[in-house]
Amino acid sequence: MARKAKTDELKLVGGEKTQLRKASSRDWSKAKQRDFLSALAETCNVTRAAAEAGISVSAAYRRRKADAGFRGAWLEAIGSAYQRLELVLLERAFVGTEKIVRRKDGSEERMVEYPNQLALTLLKMHRDTAMEAGAEFAPDDIEEVRERVMAKLERLRRREQATGDAPAA
Fold first, then answer.
1. Last residue of a domain, one of 18, 46, 69
2. 121: pLDDT confidence band, cut at 50, 70 and 90?
3. Are residues 103 and 85 in the same domain?
4. Is 21 helix (H, G, I), strand (E, B) or coil?
């Protein structure tokens, strides 16, 4: 007498004739989808997200193509990752990164390095928005502009932390 498999181990599959088959570890589950989208939002890297979820990269792209809901969640995860990345890059452009310079005599000096290329790229990306903002209000000095930008960054950081998406600063 053949044993019947538990119903939670069966999966309905289509084709010419609909049938039940045993669920495979390669099948998508809500947990795998959640893990994939979470990793994608953290890393913005499909290969790493697929590895973390235990699925293949091609399976992820196939699912994105076939499932509109998953495609929307994918885009949301990428958008979230890009927002976090932009915040980090803006902070780096304004605050700089500490660099240790070692001299030939063995002494060390700490200095702050400002990535000019990064700053120029960010300026290009936000030129239109900045022009619109400039038409509304013309600041008198650069410190006022810096304070406004830093206040906006802080508001964005708090909003990200409130949603639980941002890493602790």
1. 69
2. confident
3. yes
4. strand
> What DSSP assignment string belongs to 60-120?
HHHHHHH-HHHHHHHHHHHHHHHHHHHHHHHHHHHH-EEEEEE-TTS-EEEEEE--HHHHH
Per the model's pLDDT, the better-predicted residue between 47 and 134 turns out to be 47
Short-list 52, 7, 51, 53, CA closest to 31: 53
Q: Which residue has the higher pLDDT, 58 or 167?
A: 58
User: Which pLDDT value is given to residue 87?
Assistant: 84
The answer, yes or no, to whether residue 100 has pLDDT greater than 60, is yes
- How far CA 132 is from CA of 4, 12, 126, 159, in Å, comes to 67, 55, 10, 24
Q: Does 148 reside within a domain? A: yes
Name residue, tokens 């290009």.
124
Structure-block tokens of residue 141: 């000095």
Residues 86, 154 within the same domain: yes
What mean pLDDT is reported for the chain?
Answer: 79
Domain range for residue 40?
A: 27-69
